[in-house]
Amino acid sequence: MSEVRVRFAPSPTGPLHIGGVRTALYNYLFALKNRGTFILRIEDTDQVRYVPGAEKYIIESLKWCGLIPHEGPGFGGDYGPYRQSERKDIYRAYAEQLVHAGHAYYAFDSAEELDALRKEDPNFKYGVYTRSKLKNSLALSSEETMQYLNRGENVVIRLRIPENEQIDFVDEIRGHVSFDSNELDDKVILKGDGMPTYHLANIVDDHLMKISHVIRGEEWLSSTAHHVLMYRFFGWTAPVFAHLPLILKPTGQGKLSKRDGAQFGFPVFPLNWNDANPAQTFPGFREEGYLPEALLNFLAFLGWNPGTEQEIFSVKELAEVFTLDKIVKSGARFDIEKALWFNQHYLIHTDDYVLAALLRPLLREAGTLYNDAYLAEVCNMMKERVHRINEIPQKAAFFFHPVFQYDDQTLLKKYKPVLRDHFLQIAERILQSDAADAASCEKAVKDYITEQSLKMGDILPVLRIAVSGTMQGPDLFRTIALLGKDETHIRIQNALEHFDRLFA
Ligand code: GLU
Q: Is the domain of 269 the same as that of 368?
């Protein structure tokens, strides 16, 4: 096989949807598997839909995920520029080449005229059946055509779809695909402003950049018929096509949309996207406390599976087993529970100091008060109890603030006011114990309980609530060791005052 060169070709029309991240991932894995090249190409020819900041967002998302292009804007490569707006001058000659060969033609219809036709017939198509009645170089005389061209208004170039043809191609995922040419429209390939449309720029660039495989979303399947025709008209070999299945809503019904995030309560974008309009502001997986390794592992399985029971894969491992024939045809349901499951797995297996660095900014002012070792220990204790790092500030608030709220329900059942003094004694014992590690705290407390012939069940749960406010916290003695002897002493005293009020 010749060299594998694949591209991820997003349009900077807004934040990159999670489906786009999956497309980038599959391209990346395919390149890695085949020792090929992964290219980022920014398809920014549509000035109307261009959104400032979107390209930066796309690149930052890829970087966060570790899907680093081998070639692309800012990444180098021999086939640049990789931003289509910077390639504007390349495309016109190709469009004109098709006109001269009779595979494309000039059209002069104004936007208002076309709108009126669409209003009359919502299924209106500029194509085989209608083109002879419209304003274009196929329908008009050469004099009229020259006049329109000289005037230069509303001049576009359209692809001339042949009549009564079946357009066939093979898709690696869908198999044999066929379109009736009479159903296709004569797509604009070069616009009035001299900019190419997606269709022309996309195939010219795929050809010039020597793209071997086009791996993209299913929504581009019908355009592929046009692309296949253009490859034929130019006399170029078309790349291999693979159209990825849709990502479906959690209900399994319909395509996952950017609005579903808010509706179902999870992010559908990799990073936060801020907009002056709150309705266009979206949360991201990164800011919601997901790890990129977990997101990628989750996305890999949205439409692909290795055919074995194994679910946990690093990107490197994925690249070893990834093949296009294991991609499924049917839509993949977006299941956030699964994303959380993957995330917890990766939290547990991530170094505590790495997690500490992620946790610190989430603590706001409190983040400046603790050293790395303290935060790393909190992460170590908490990571099996949360699915996202962002849950830690709230679920482990007692490590960063005094206890404001106690689990009174449990206290009412467990606390025996007659034992009040013993708790004070235990606080003293802890204060006097010399080592600050969990084992010596445990020994100090348990020795006291045994000496005094008390019951563990009468002391330990209450002690736990005294220092952390809750029964849900991590190991009691590790908690005490981390809080420190002095802080624990103060907490037990404060808690006893609260207990007095509760039982007054
Ligand atoms: N620019 C198109 C998009 O935004 C790329 C489609 C393709 O990969 O050909 O999705």
A: no
Query: CB count, 10 Å around CB of 133?
Result: 9
Q: Based on the domain organization, do 356 and 461 belong to the same domain?
A: no
| Final residue before a domain boundary, out of 203, 223, 244 | 244
Give the whole-angstrom CA distance, residue 118 versus residue 347. Answer: 54
Backbone dihedral angles phi then psi of residue 497, each to the nearest 5 degrees: -65, -40
Chain segment 115-156, per-residue pLDDT in tens: 999 999 999 999 999 999 999 999 999 999 999 999 998 999
Q: Let me know if residue 165 belongs to a domain.
A: yes
Element (H, E) at 468: helix 456-468
Nearest to 137 by CA among 164, 92, 104: 104
**How far apart are the C-alpha atoms of 409 and 406, rounded to whole Å?**
9
Judge if 285 and 155 occupy the same domain.
no
Q: What percent of the chain has pLDDT over 90?
A: 91
- Going across the sheet that includes 37-40, the strands are 37-40, 5-8, 213-217, 240-244, 166-171, 175-180
The list of the chain residues with pLDDT below 50 reads: none
Collapsing DSSP to helix, strand or coil, 46 comes out as coil
- Asked if the structure places residue 80 within a domain, the reply is no
Does residue 403 lie in a domain region?
A: no
**Is there a domain that residue 497 lies in?**
yes
Return phi, psi of residue 136, to 5°: -155, 170
Provide the number of structural domains found in the chain. 4
Distance 165 CA to ligand 1 centre (A): 26
Tell me which of 33, 258, 338, 446 is the catalytic residue.
258
Range of the domain at 235: 85-244
Pocket test for ligand 1, best of 17, 202, 204, 231 (most atoms within 8 A of CB): 202
Centre of ligand 1 to C-alpha 15, Å, is 14
Distances (CA, A) of 6 to 26, 43, 177, 371: 10, 15, 21, 45
User: Which residues are CB-contacts of 241 (< 8 A; sequence separation ≥ 6)?
Assistant: 169, 170, 171, 172, 213, 214, 224
Whether the Cβ atoms of residue 48 and residue 78 lie closer than 8 Å to each other: no
Q: Which of 185, 219, 244 is the last residue of a domain?
A: 244
Distance from the first to the final alpha carbon of the chain: 83
* CA-proximal residue: ligand 1, atom 2 (nearest): 10
Does the model's pTM come out above 0.90?
Answer: yes
